[in-house]
Amino acid sequence: MHTLERESPTSAILRVLRVSLHVGFAVLLLVAVVRLLTNGGASQPAVFAGLALSAALAAVYLAGTVLEKRHSNSPDAFDPTPYARWWLAAVMVLWLLLLLVSSDFAWVAFPLFFLQLHLLPRWAALAAIVASTTLLVGALWFHGRSAADGGLQLAMVLGPVFGAGFAVVTGMAYRALFLEAENQRLVADELRRTRAELARTQRDAGMLAERERLAREIHDTLAQGFSSIVLMGRSAGKALSDGDIAAASERLQTVQDTASSNLAEARSFVRGLRSPGLREEGIVDTLRRLCANTQTEAAARGTNLRCRFELAGSPVELPNTYQTTLLRAAQASLANVWKHAHAQSAVVTLSFLESEVTLDVFDDGIGFEPAAASAAARGDGTGVGLSGLRERLAALDGSLDIESAPGEGTVVAVRLPWPAEGDAA
Fold first, then answer.
1. Residue 96 gets which letter from DSSP?
2. Domain extents for the chain?
């Protein structure tokens, strides 16, 4: 079902004026033809010439108006605009020939005045109207010579002059309305293009935001899990080679648990839901379990890493986005600890303070120079952890601080202001 565009008042007025102009031309031409046929004084050749020229004038006029109407309704249709002045010249020539046949065709001039004003520059239109009026007065005098007083009568001059003046005033008003309607049409077209561009930009921004969300989730969950699975698989293989069946079985069980957790995480973030651990346990228990799992996995890989969780303050229920951000920050930080820090201990501290909730991850590893660490993604898809974490925190007006130095360990400090009252949990 098509939606009809509402016609503006200016466009409605222009449409009525155009229809009136065409109807007026047709009526005046028809009246002139009828008078020619009923005029007993007209010769037969004059009648035949008048009928032929009237038919030609009607055909040319109708062809031009139909082509213009089709193009206005469908811009892909033939555009008669480049030929408009040639069309006007043909109409004027046919009218002048009809004036030679009979003075009854004189009144057809008034609709033609409007055409001249519409299709020609103002100075050219005024000059054409003056010339047409002069020829009209001359034709009236020419055909009135056989009257009792064959001289030029005042009515022969005043009628065409006043008619031309009225046509000029009305035509200029029409032209002003036409230009206003064209400006409105251009503004409306620009508005539609702007709206379409805005919709396309919003759609692209939404796609980019969703892509970035998936990239962060994949890095902080699936990528870390797969990395753990690979390392635990290698450790299980080494245990089998050494004949330690119990250790191999334990590490394969860890692989199975990690894979199951990854699968649950994947299903969860595809649906835009919170982490399965957060749904079941909450942020405090989930972080405590994360520390225990990190220590277990490190031991399975032969790394002596002690990881413990500490809670400061009284826990309160946080919105889903806050809990997810804190969990991803802890996961990314601990992943960096066992991948790069070569630490012996790590401490995850969650603090509920008066104005904010904080998460601090400390390790006593080899440390690094924060200024030299690149936050940009590397070609292999790694290196997006810190940048992704900063994006998460920025969305919640939070902050990320990293304190480290070579040989002095590392502290990752996350700060989140309390959510505004009414935020979704």
1. H
2. 9-143, 305-373+384-425
- Does residue 119 or residue 424 have the better pLDDT? 119
Cα–Cα distance measured from residue 37 to residue 281, given in angstroms and rounded to the nearest whole number: 102
Say what the pTM is.
0.45
User: What are 196-247's pLDDT values in tens digits?
Assistant: 788 777 777 766 766 776 666 666 667 777 777 777 787 778 878 888 887 7
Q: pLDDT tens-digit profile of 121-179?
A: 888 888 888 888 888 877 777 776 655 455 556 666 776 777 777 777 776 776 677 77
pLDDT, one tens digit per residue, over 61-93 is 889 888 888 877 787 778 888 888 899 899 889
CB 160 within 8 Å of CB 106? yes
CB 86 within 8 A of CB 63: no
Q: Which residue has the tokens 């980019």?
A: 208
Residue linked to tokens 């970035």: 212
Strand partners, 350: 311, 359
Query: Which amino acid is it at 115?
Result: L
- Give dist(CA 119, CA 126) in Å, integer: 12
Query: In Å, how far are 108, 168, 172, 299, 363 from 114, measured between CA atoms?
Result: 11, 7, 9, 96, 89
Fold category of 305-373+384-425 in CATH? Heat Shock Protein 90 (3.30.565)
Distance between CA atoms of 390 and 401, rounded to whole angstroms? Answer: 10
E-only strand ranges, 161-319:
306-312
Please compute Rg for the chain using Cα positions. 44
